[in-house]
Model the fold of this input.
Amino acid sequence: MSTHVPPVGPNQTGILDHPELTLEMLEATRLFPPSSEGSDDNLAELRLEYGKRAQQGDPAGSMPKTTVANPSDELIVLLDHLGARLAFERTGVRLYDGLIAKHEAYGSWEGGPSRSELEQLRDEEYEHFSMLRRAVRESGGDPTAITPAANLELLIGSGVVAAIADPRLDLLQSLEAIMVAELADHEGWHVLIDLAQEYGFSEWLPEFKRALNQEEDHLEYVRRWIAAAQNRIEDSSH
Done:
C-alpha cells in the first residue's frame, strides 16, 4: 500500500453526485447561447493576427548590447542561454525554499527528504546561480537582463512556482512539481555545455559540467524521495 493515500471525502469537483444540477447547467447553455458566431478557424485567425502584431511590438525578453566590441553571433546565442540558466537557477533557489517550508508544515516520511538535504540542494542551486552570474559578466553580458531564452524558461516554470507556492499541496505533491523543473534544468545544462563546446567557450566548461553533475544528483534525490513515498523501488537505470 502507498504510504501517501489521498484523503477520501465529499465530491467537490465532479458532477456525477448531482445529475439534476448537471441538467440545469446544460439547460443554461441553451438559455444563454454564445454571443459570438466565432469558430476554431476564427480563433486561429485571431492568434495569427496577434502574432503579427507581436513581431512589430516589444519582444519577449531582450538581448542588451554587450561590453565586447563587435560580438559574434555565437557569443550572443551563448549569452542568451546563459541568461536562461541564470533565471532558472535563481528560481530554483526559491523553489527549494518553498519545499523547505512544506517540509516544516507537512513533515517527511521514511526514505523522504530531510530538511538538511533540501537545504543542501537549495544551496547548490544558489552556487549555480552565482557562477552563472559571473559567467555572464565576464562574457560581456548583463546578468540582470531577461533574455528571450530566459523569458521562455520563466514562463514555462511559472506553473511549478505556483504549485509549490500553493499551501494546499503537500511535500510529496510539491516534489512531483519540482521534478518537472529538475528535468527541464537537466536538459538546459546539456544544451549550454554543447553550445560552449561548439562555439569554443571552453573556459567555463569545467564549472558547467560540475553544475550538471550536481543537477543529476538532484534528479536522483527527488526520484528516490517520491518512490519512497509511493512504496516502490526506484529504477536506477534512469
User: Anything to note?
Assistant: Residues 73-229 form a domain with the Ferritin fold (CATH 1.20.1260.10). The mean pLDDT is 90. Helices lie at 19-31, 40-56, 73-106, 115-138, 148-165, 171-199, 205-229.
